Known about the structure:
Blueprint: H1 2-24, H2 26-56, H3 62-88, H4 90-109, H5 116-152, H6 157-185, H7 197-224, H8 230-246
Helix pairs in contact: 1-5, 2-5, 2-6, 2-7, 3-4, 3-5, 4-5, 4-7, 5-6, 5-8
Amino acid sequence: MFVILLETNKEKVNFGQTVKGLTKNKPLMVFLVAALAFMIVFMLIGTVNVYLFKDYFTNAKALSMVGLLQAVAVFVAMPFIQPLVKRFGKKEVASGGLLIATLVYAILYFLPNLTATQFIGVLTVAMFGYGTFNLVVWAFVTDVIDYHEYLTGLREDGTVYSIYSMARKIGQAVAGGVGGAAIAAVGYTAGAEAQTAETLQGIHTLGTLVPAIVLGVVFLMIVFLYPLNKKRTEQLTADLAARRFKK
C-alpha cells in the first residue's frame, strides 16, 4: 500500500510539471496558434475557390486544375525541403514559404481583371509557398517537444503531439463553418442565375485579400514570436544531448 501511494504521488508531480511546462512553452503556444490560423485559412481558400471559379470567373472546370496544381506544387517542393532546412533552418524555410504565399495573394487582389488561366498561373506560386510551410510545419513538433523536455526534464512526445493534433481538429471544425459564413456575408444568393457585382467582388476579396492578411499574420508570428530559429534549435539539441549524457 505504501508503494502504491508513492507511485500515485509521483504521477501527480509529473502531471503538474507537464502542465507547468506546457504553459511556459512559448514555442508550443505560438506554434499552435499559427498552425490553427493556417488550417482555418487553408480550408477557407478551398471553400471560396469553388465560388470564385464558378461565379467570378464563370469557369468551374478550372477548379480541377487548381487541385491538380496544388498537389504538383507539393511534390515539386518535397525534394528541396530537407536541403533547405539543413542550410537555413525550419523556421526560416517555413516563414519564407509563408511570405511568398502572402505576397502572391496580395498581388492577385490588385489584379481583378485576370482570366481564370492567368489567375491559376500566378496562384501556383502561392501554392508552392504555403505548400512548403505545410511540409515543414510537421517538423516543428519535434523542436517543440525538445523544448518541453528542456523546460521540464520530461520527454513527453505523445502529450505534445496530441495537443497539436487536437488543435488541427479544432481548426478543421472551425473552418468548416467559416467558409459558408464568409460566402453568406458577402451576399451570395444560392440558386440565383447571376450574383451581384458587389457579391462577386466580395468573393474575389475572400479568395485573395483575406488569405494574404491571414497568411501575413502567421508569417509575422513565426518570424517575431516563434523563438526556435536555426541557431537556437541547434543549441537546444546540444544542451539536451549533454544533459542526457550526464545522466
